[in-house]
Amino acid sequence: MGNGLLAIGAGIAVLTGIGAGVSMGLATGKSVEAVARQPEAAGNIRSTMMLGLVLAESTAIYGFVIALMIMFLLK
Amino acid sequence: MELEITPQPFYIGGVNVGQSVVVAWFVTALLIILAIVVKIRSRNFTEVPKGLQNLLEFGVETIQKYSKTEVGHVWEDIAPYCATVGLYIFGCCMIEIFGVRAPTTDLAMTLAMGLGTFFWINYMGIKQKGVGGRLMHLVKPVPVIPLLTDVAIPISMACRLYGNLLAGMIVMDLIYGAMKYFAVAIPAALSLYFNFFDSAIQAYIFVTLTLSYVSEAIE
To answer: Do B91 and B103 meet the contact criterion of CB atoms below 8 Å apart?
Structure first.
């Protein structure tokens, strides 16, 4: 099949980043709103937001790992 | 420009152990030397702490308090594992500063850490509820789906650590390759983010997820 179709496959695999980007932007927006509503809980909200962001980023990481494996381990 | 995804092989007596394992041995030796130094300095610890003892007590109390708020009454078993794994991940990523490829950019090493967490989750569940209670958890809401969730736990933890740190290593390699002989100040400033902040966040997330899954298995 050659290198062209492998490259197209790897490119499609990284499209999972769209979902991660949109969801992380929405989560950060909601947490900023919550801090604006109650500034004393800023530390609590910040650590909860970091936990949620790292968990939501893992689907983008799956796509990235699959794209790397397609590009470098398939002949 | 050379960019390798898998680390280079390293042979000991005909067996290929890989470059990552040897670097991990080196990191482990450094951590053991650090522990021995602290143990020797702890001969003259006083009742009212100052200096090094202050820092150490702050670190130990932070991890113990964090485990206690997340897990509850079994924090004595899980807090040493959390501290060890956190320090190991942080130390493995810090080696990147010296130009050596970090062991956590190898999927086999991060999968080993994920399997360690998987072992602790099941061990705590069996100790709390017995083997029958742990197996009952597999059929509770819907018959087979919790088995898939349980298998996804070590795989997702391995992939998260691997993907984040491999992406950082690729970006740093590209910058070093692009700046060839003028790589003076900018890579150092960027390595503050990729090597210090990212690895600290990943170690913190690993510890937090371990505690959260264990607290879910104990209920």
So the answer is: no
Cα separation of B196 and B93, whole Å? Answer: 8
CB contact under 8 A, B5 and A72: yes
Instruction: Report the residue of chain A nearest B4, measured CA to CA.
Output: A72
DSSP B4: -
The domain ranges of chain A are: 22-73
**Do residues B57 and B45 touch, judged by C-beta distance below 8 A?**
no
Contact B164 A61 (CB under 8 A): yes
- Given an 8 Å threshold on Cβ–Cβ distance, is B208 in contact with A51? yes
Nearest partner of B168 among B104, B75, B83, judged by Cα = B104
B95 part of a folded domain: yes
Q: Which residues of B touch A72 (CB under 8 A)?
A: 5-6
Give the strand pairing for B15-16 and B11-12.
antiparallel
Q: Is residue B96 part of a domain?
A: yes
pLDDT in tens, chain B (219 residues): 456 777 788 888 778 888 888 999 999 999 999 999 888 888 877 777 777 888 888 889 999 998 898 888 888 889 999 999 999 999 998 888 888 888 888 888 999 999 999 999 999 888 888 888 888 888 877 888 888 888 999 999 999 999 988 888 888 888 888 887 777 787 888 888 888 888 898 999 999 999 989 988 887
Rg (CA), chain A: 18
Distance CA A24, CA A53 (A): 6
- Which CATH architecture group holds A22-73? Up-down Bundle (1.20)
Distance CA B129, CA B139 (A): 15
Q: How many domains would you assign to chain B?
A: 1
Please check whether residue B4 lies inside any domain of the structure. Answer: no
Q: Which structural domain range is residue B128 located in?
A: 11-218
ipTM summary value: 0.80
pTM (predicted TM-score): 0.87
The C-alpha of B160 sits at a distance from chain A's nearest C-alpha, in angstroms, of 6
